[in-house]
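Late entry, written up from scratch paper. The run itself happened at the end of the previous shift, but nothing got recorded in the book at the time, so transcribing now.
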Amino acid sequence: MKQKMLSLCEEVTGNGVTASEDLCSRICSAVDELDMLNPTVDPASMGAQAGALDGTWGLAFTTNKETSAGKIGPFVGTVTQEVQVGIGKYVNRVSLGPVSLALTAHWEVLDGENW
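Output as recorded:
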């Protein structure tokens, strides 16, 4: 299932910003199927498998068409997110050639599945 989702994500360019509606739908369906297999209870909670989400994550696909999708004017950069669950902090970083922009923020746990 994970490989199916990743294979679909490889079909997009620019993090999915310009992906067709059909491809977006297929990727979102694959994500939903994979999500149902997630054994983590309350994945958004601060105590969910301590460290399981910590680290640097690369953006493979998003349905967001705004700047957090790596869009800077007419260009789309490479997006990473550094997550530190224990302190509720993340850094979104967009790199476009020699330019790198970063946004550091904190989140609040709303419930077991949402920050």
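The first strand starts at residue 55 and ends at 58.
(Scratch paper discarded after transcription.)
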